[in-house]
Amino acid sequence: MEIIIKPILTEKMTAAGEKLGRYGFVVARDADKPQIKDAVEKAYGVKVTDVNTMIYMGKAKRRFTKAGLLQGRTNHFKKAVVTLKDGDKIDFYSNI
Questions:
Q1: Which strands form 4-7's sheet, in the order they lie side by side?
Q2: Where are the alpha helices (DSSP H) in 1-96?
Q3: Structural domains of the chain sorted by starting position, each given as residue range(s) with its CATH number in brackets
Q4: pLDDT score of 95
Q5: Among 85, 6, 92, CA closest to 46
Q6: Which end of the chain, N or C, is more open, meaning fewer C-beta atoms within 10 Å of its C-beta?
Q7: pLDDT (tens digit, 9 = 90+) per residue, 34-90?
Q8: Per-residue pLDDT for 6 more than 80?
């Protein structure tokens, strides 16, 4: 099972990473905090001190088309915000 799905690369999370050493990830919905901590430490070679998780329900979406009203929902997802030990950093842009 893949724990880390993708990093969250927004202005807000980038600022939190630079100032507070916090980084956000979209993770598997059935992953727990110890699994997330181990996955981040193994993938990026850093020391994680804290993990906070949030589960988001997908937004309801609707649009009007020639065929009529289409209704649906975006995917549910789980977000994890990990705090790293002082001095540790993750550079998401180094592999580009």
A1: 4-7, 22-27, 77-84, 48-56
A2: 11-20, 33-44
A3: 4-84 (3.30.70.330)
A4: 66
A5: 85
A6: C
A7: 999 999 999 999 999 999 999 999 999 999 999 999 999 999 999 999 999 998 888
A8: yes
Amino acid 94 reads: S
What are the C-alpha distances in Å from 58 to residues 15, 33, 61, 71, 80?
A: 25, 22, 9, 13, 16
What Rg value do the Cα atoms of the chain yield, rounded?
A: 16
Q: CA-CA distances (angstroms) from residue 77 to 20, 26, 37, 67, 74?
A: 24, 7, 18, 30, 9
Distance CA 82, CA 25 (A): 8
